[in-house]
Amino acid sequence: MFEPQAMTKVIIAGSKDYMGVAIDTLHKHNVVHIADFVDEDEDFKIGKPYASATKLSERAVSLRSIASYLNITGKEDIQSRYPEGAITDEIDEKTERLNFEVTQVTHKISDIDSHIKDINDKKRLLDPLKSFDLPLDLYGGYRSLAVFVGTLKGSPPISDITNDYELETVPYGRGHVIALFVPREFEDDVLKRLQDQSYSALSLPEMEGTPRDILANLDAQRTELESEKERSQEDLNALRERYIDYILASDECLSVATQKAEAPLRFATTKNAFIVEGWIPTKNLERVQGDVDRATEGHVMVATDASEAVSAEKVPIALENPMPSEPFEVLVRAFSLPKYNEIDPTTFVALIYPFLFGLMLGDIGYGAVVIGIGFLVQRRLKSKGIRDLAKILVYAGVISVVFGFIYNEFFGAQLFGGGGFIPFFYAYPTIPRFDNVLTLLLVTLVIGILMLTLGYALGFVNEYRQQGLKHAVFSKVSWLLLLWGGVLVIIEILPPLTTGAAIRISPALLGGLAVAVVGFVFLIMGEGIIGIAELPTLLSNVLSYSRLLSIGISSAGIALAVNKLSDALFFSRGGVFIIFGVLMLIVGHTVNTALGILDSGLQSLRLHYVEFFTKFYSGGGTKYRPFGYERKYTEEQ
After folding, report:
1. Any long-range contacts for 235-244 (C-beta under 8 Å, 24+ apart)?
2. In this predicted model, what pLDDT tens digit does every residue of 617-634 receive, in sequence order?
3. Taking the model in full, what pTM does it have?
4. Confidence of residue 311 (pLDDT cuts 50, 70, 90)
């Protein structure tokens, strides 16, 4: 629970004749993390993939192209699993037939889209002329006339150039669209005059009829094409429904086969043998050894290698936590996986993160909403990472409700007691936040001291494992002594400083100073003079936990403001204003809920990553990636 899953380094070696059998067996177990071989020399070369790898890849590309056309994402569920053998026997013929059917429909849809685009382009060109009654073929083809069809800002003042012209013009957009006919001899002068009015010529399609009639015909054509496209899309949907199970199962089958065919690329090989280095969870070691030995008739062995058993840098990390803590692994992974000889902080995060979140949000109503959001996301989304975050929201929402009872807050209003929604139920003492700011501030500082203490204690364990006792004492115990020595000193001198009384020399004060001095000496011995520069961070880390109060007070303050404003502006006036008051409450508390989730979630995470993890946790572990496949659509035979 507090450490990554135990791993054993193995060397898998044997005859090349049995390499395929060994690959099948290892893949079936899905537990061996293979360390890729990269250092070729005259004795060992990187293995070559099986000849089937290329064909498998081509099949997979074709099938995934079909899946893309059918909008199959690979996240769908199917009613029953396909036997692997049934897929293998028919995959070529069935995929070719499916590809032909899908291609026919997709090409048809593509042609329709192309025609619709062409119609839209023509409509765009003809739309400015829809008020003109002149047939389209009469806008050009003259020897003696120059024709100008286009848009410009104002009316064309050309009467000083020639009075011999025909002009049609209608308002269009911020200017006009014109059709102007002038003798060819005045073409250049007229064009220059039009350009002064920002003239832009229209490129007319070669069609017959008036623009209005052509546009009506184009609309009818587009309507028919859209109906035809809709029918083709229905055909595509029918193909999806008919073949989705087969496509998902076939893609998985090809993925499995490709993994196996390309596996030798990760092996070291000679002419007659192969060698694989990797890691196996210790609990699975004996079973894998036995199965490989039986499947290969003793021609391949799985031997343990203790030569690098303590090399934490190379051991892959598989987290192993109880079910309630497992969702919080997503927060640990977001920071970094632990090294093999480091404490896994997931359990501590599972205990502390919801507590800090709830301490900040601390409202029965908001907490209930957070719980509801968490359950809703779990039901609607299938991504494991998102579902884990949703479960964390549920935990955090529950703790928020608990603190809501402690603070006696329900959407910022008092719930129990005099003036509350339930005045007759007031059988327990509450701690209203606005009336106990100083007390809650002290609580947050105590939380900070305790979390730093836990961090340094865990850091001591990690340093002791990695560097030995001496280094652990100098690097972690030194900070613990400085922390608690400083706490004792502050407890003794702060009251007199606040009241103006004289500071009394007491055993606690002397003891605190002594503890802090010893810690300072250890710090210098361990980190040298540079350690002095880090001393202010100890105080800043403790004070950083005061954000638990500031975030909580700000959230409660916004909720209170929403309630007071809605009452003063709307509810107190009665009548129809009550509706606006309700709307203001809904919008205000919705926004405050979102801010509360964001602020409480991020600030709690920051206190873990910046103030807590840095005291004991460096991370940098390698993710455990077993050779195998989590089957969802097929089953082995």
Report:
1. 235/105, 236/69, 236/70, 236/102, 236/105, 236/106, 236/109, 239/70, 239/98, 239/101, 239/102, 239/105, 240/70, 240/71, 240/72, 243/70, 243/98, 244/70, 244/72, 244/76, 244/78
2. 988 899 999 999 988 888
3. 0.80
4. low
